[in-house]
Design a protein that fits this description.
The chain has 3 domains: 49 residues; 89 residues, EF-hand (Recoverin, domain 1), CATH 1.10.238.10; 106 residues, Recoverin, domain 1 (Orthogonal Bundle), CATH 1.10.238. Strands 1-2 form a two-stranded antiparallel ribbon. The protein has a two-stranded antiparallel ribbon with strand order 3-4. The N and C termini lie far apart (79 Å). α1 crosses α2 and α5 crosses α7. By secondary structure, it is mainly alpha-helical. The chain has 13 helices and 4 strands. 63% of the residues lie in helices and 3% in strands. InterPro entries: DCN-prot, DCN1-like_PONY, PONY_dom. Pfam families: Cullin_binding (PF03556), UBA_4 (PF14555).
Length: 254
Amino acid sequence: MFSAKITNFIQVTGCADETIADYFLKKNKLHLNNAIDDFYANGHVVVQESANAKVISQIFDKYTDNDSKDQIGIDGALSYFSDMGIDVENDVEALIAAYILKSPSTCIFNKTEFVSGWCNVSPEITSVADMARYLHHAKNNCDLMKKVHNFAFMYALDEGERKLEIDAAVALWKIIYKADFAHFEETGKHTTVTKFVIDFIVSGKSGKSQISRDEWEMSYDFFVIPLVELENYSESEAWPVLMDDFVDFLFGRV
């Protein structure tokens, strides 16, 4: 009976893709007339998404290895990022990709999340070059970058651990706030507290050997505070103790 409805749907709508017919029939609880009406109202969107998914799937397949057709491994991921002109170890674009594609671990991508991730970003992404352009511009999206920043903590955390080792945290911060460090190297001037805080932690003056999740997530908002505004810093604003200690150190109160 279901196959007959698929056939009828295709005959009436002229849509030759059985997966789309299947989608609309199941969406409308197998009511043929409702499914046909829904297709005429929304079919152009679904057809575009279906076509886009096929293109993204083909891109994914290019980077899989012989062991699994449903996963891109480390070698394939390195090739993928290289084709986009992205340095996995130094460019924040690699972290953005890991976030939107729900990478389970470093340089590992599963097909379902890869395809759905790129399809959700935009139906206009149909090539590796499109992906690279999106990732390049995405790093200027503050809302997205806050999510990427928070994602990075769990992404880099060793299995079974609840805190991030200082070396790992600093390495991630230097990737995420690469622009701040580049600005300092070019001008010798600081615009935010980012480099000051990281230097404070690396020097050992913070007394920290690990960073907690709360400290990590709060650091995103703290790091973007302009230096000139730190004079108005208040410990009553519920910042982690790490930030309180840094401000005390900066103003010579310890």
